[in-house]
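Task: encode each sequence below as structure tokens.

Item 1
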Amino acid sequence: MRARAIFPNRGARLNASRVLISAALAAPAFAHAQTADQPAKKAAPEIQIDVTAPPRKEPSYATSTQVTATREERKIDDLPLTVTAITHDAIDDRDAHRTNDVLTLAPGVQFFSGYGGTWDDYTLRGFHIWSATTFRNGFLSGYSGANAIDVVNVERIEVIRGPASALYGPGLPGGAINFVTKRPSEQARSRVGISVGSFDTARAELDTTGPLSDGVLYRLTAAGDTSSGYRDFNTFRRYVVNPVVSVRLASDTWLLAEVQAYEEAYRADPYGVPQIAGNSQAFPVERSFAEPALPLATTSGQLGRIELFHALSPSWSLRVATQTQLGRYDEEALNPALLDTDGRSLIRVLSNWQSHSADTALQVALRGKFATGSLEHELIAGVDARREIVDYRIGLSDPTVDPYVIDVFDPHYGSPLPSAPLPPGRLDRWTYESGGVYANDLVKLAPGLNLLGGARADTYRQTSATSTLFDKAGEPALTGRTGVVYQLIEQSALYGNLSTGFWPVLGIQGDGHVLKPEHSFAWELGQRTSLGHEQLTFDAVLFDIKNRNISVIDPTNTNFQVQRGRAESRGVELALTARLARHLRAMASYAYTHAVVTDDPDPKQIGSNLPLSARHAGAGFIEWLFLPGLSVGPGLVYTSKRSLVDQSEIPGYVRFDARVAYRHGSVESSLFVQNVLDRRYTLSGTNALGVLPGAPRNVQLTTRVSF
């Protein structure tokens, strides 16, 4: 799937009045509420509602609660599901700017091609997840929100593995990635940070929060980046601003409202460099076959979200929320089309993309605690609806008229760009509408024994209208999940689950036709160990996922996607977090993933690996406070060889990173070194014509001041 290139848009203007009006109808996202965990008696315990940030505590990479797997805050140990949370402390200790700086710490998450680094782009348990298919506070990002997420406003990243359709409706088979953003706090505090580093990189960020008046809290996060990149002509700049306000309307009612705006400008270089005779490292790391005269592409977007939290009684509460996103995208990019038989003449095609989009999502959910005889229930039930419209226009140069050739071994730049005019007339349009109703019940059968059951009914419709055709698709879907967790002893539990999922593939084929939905079935068996209060956690899980009607990048036109056959992914995942007193924090993961095509119209494809899914992958780092105020933090990222869309291969790699930090009072300064040994490695790729080298050794100096 090259959905980004179909609808590469992400920006426009926020129609605030539309957001405010639709809020009256709205519906809730992933709960930001905190639930008091009290022992249940005959009467269900009181449900507390709070949309403020929790108080600060000792830094930790472990967390005992999550919101993604249940759409509200619940203890992870109570759930028969595999959930990984990357906390804000882990993000800070990696001096991360984007989510891809830390997401590979979650087992089963690996880099995908990323369209030259423009998106967040991953595989999860072997299946592709890119920016448009991630979640932000429980709302699907969609094309209007498809961009590389900045961490300045991210409180934590949660990854639920396996199909989540029984809770969220349309969902990818590998799982869901949810970015939980920061909330206003009752405690006034601020932090500013400045970073400078290799490749002319500079960054400034702000995070400030506190009360505005009695019952009114605010939070403002903002960041700006600029860089020339480690590859030639890869200029990049970006900003994001995100103000949030929460208001206590009554003792049992909270209202939260936010807006966000972002903009990126970059010189598009989506595919990298070609392999030469199977060698993915045939060129210097900095080599690029983009053109310095190529105008900077821009992508921008705005978001508005309103959520209402209301306690109906001591045991029941209601959440209502709405979100609207607008996006805009303008890009000219040079794409590799053919490496001539001489092995050095690369023919490039200029693509000219313009699009704008808008989506509105409504969610409503009711949650409560009650008892039926000796059984204690925690129920959440709700309704979701979403509509997105993408208008786009595509122009391509003609390689038979102007092949736009460059010698890859002796490149000369500056030739006039080929013509790629946008077609006249109406823009092509893709629309997507979906709605569903769900219920999810966590039942306490006995001390230490919980049963989770959930079901959902969905319907969707998508249409594609171009100058030459009109196509549509849609169907109802029923999905479910069930699981059991048994706590053997206080520190250890066993769990297992079954789940089904469906994904009405977003986007179109190269001929403009819409795509059919994927359907998946998965099982998991896991063991979870927790020692102390968020001091040490260890998870081990076996999994198997079967997916039919899979969609993959079209090998003949990587701007689009095709569907074919079936795939299966199975494997083992291990995850560890540790906090030993205040002196040592650690996080590590490993995944063995066997993800292959099991059925295909082309017999040659059967048994082939799913793109960019490494058989072995792992990551980890340590933050060790070995002297008062002074800490060191070694880390590594490892992956084995991976197959690309055309089944060509790129080698695996091990990359070592390191961090040294010194804190004195409210000031912390750190030096982060990526690729300490300056090893050559191939980060990712699309096909034999496009592979992306990893960055050489680079350093980043960061100073943060808190007050």
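Item 2
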Amino acid sequence: MRNESIDYDVIIVGAGAGGGVAAGVLAEAGRSVLVLERGAAMRPGEIPLDHLRNHRLSQYGVNTQCDLDGIPRVAVDAFGNGRTVSPLDGAYHLNAFVVGGGTLVYGAQAWRFLPDDFRMASKYGSPEGSSLADWPISYDDLEPWYDKVEWEVGVCGAPHKLSSPRSRAYPMPPVPDTLSRKLLQAAAGKLGWETGPVPLLINSVTYNGRPACEQCGMCVGFGCPNDSKNGSQNTMLARALKTGRCTLVTGATADRLLTDARGRVTGVSYFVDTCDTPTRIAAQAKVVIVAASAVETARLLLNSPTDREPNGIGNNADHVGRHLNGHSYPGANGLFDDIVHDGIGPGVSISTLQFNHDNPGLIGGGMLANEFVKLPIIFQKGSFPPGMSRWGIEAKRYMRSAFTRSLHVQGPVQDIPSPSARVTIDRDVRDRYGIPVVRIGGANHPETARVCNSMRDRAIEWLTAAGAKKVWGWAPTGGLTGGQHQSGTCRMGNDPKSSVTDAWGRVHSQESLYIADGGLHVTNGGLNPVLTIMALAWRVADRVSQVI
């Protein structure tokens, strides 16, 4: 192992939503920072606009540069049987391995969680077999950090009547109206539903020195060719690098946390490829922040046992890796007589929070919105009516006639966490560096399926009120949702017996180890979680800057 000659104030593992924000906060606070990222740094023009290989449709390949060979996982079925899967298998639950993480290629929905999302157990009770719990912080505790992210990273939008209270307006107005927004807004009015625009981490006007969205429609799964989408890589991480106090190492795979004789975390061991030969490097720091995604963060802690914590750092209570959840996505498609899809990007422009909470007989709820502009291949794979062939002349005719006459309404449902949905380590399967890989398995709690069915029915109701002549819906029924919105594996809490970190993201058993990604989430809201990840990361980093 090669030892780094420089000690840092902070090492951050992961340059995604949480890691990039934390790096910016700490470097601008005068701290020396090392950021380790498995993937590459890519400029907007370097990200291919390949309709078959992207992070919206990844079964044929992705459009980021990380080498996906040699990084398998083990997927566990309902009977406990494991199979080795590649990143292009849906059971892998792939997130983007690249500087910026998912924020480089996301759709950029920038929702704040609702106040009730932080007190789910108090509001609904904890259903049998679930691990539903309250957060150790409230919405009011996080509101100032939401505000910082919205203004410093950049969010466009306008408040819903049912959205979370806020201390000031969004820094940018919403993206312009689309044909589908006007149609769905009128339909919601007939139903008595409140609606509003979708907040987005996208420049609707020139902001922070970068241009406004050109409405090309190539958002989800792609980098923005105009650099108008606001991810960590072109905002807070860029600011960190500009200070001269932040060092970014790409192609770096962390294999374990380093500790001293007392078991206290003192640094990170990681691999880089030098002349095609793996080199293992040890870097030291006063504080380590792990922000590698909920799945990979749990893996790193579990792969770092010590005499004091033989089951992995932070895992003496067996909660590291547990409570994995993401979001189920029920929804509906509607076919209209007239053209209802104008192809103006990003496409998603209207939403309702009417059913996020207080649905009779249900725990939680979700948000519904119109969909981003779809690639034709994704329309072909997922938007044909049940029973219709996806091949041949009939399919071609349907594509020609229906693509602009179809609307798709869907949204994330708040998954009810389960302790059996979890990440563990498979010692028999290893990656290219010999590091034990993730073993991932479990299922959603049955209460989630009940909410999914209800939200599907609401989506059908909305499209029917909008005048669709044919409507069909779907509702996920229990599969693990550990994908793009993964959360919960290192949940925060006040009691070390039932959580991994304290209310500031510090691992209970460690003075110098913090988490700053979706793993902190006790619940994941019925809304996209990236703004919450960023807000928590800012809060964690601000705390770290005060203690070192």
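Check on item 2: The CA atoms of residues 156 and 172 lie 4 Å apart. The chain is about 20% helix and 20% strand.
End of task.
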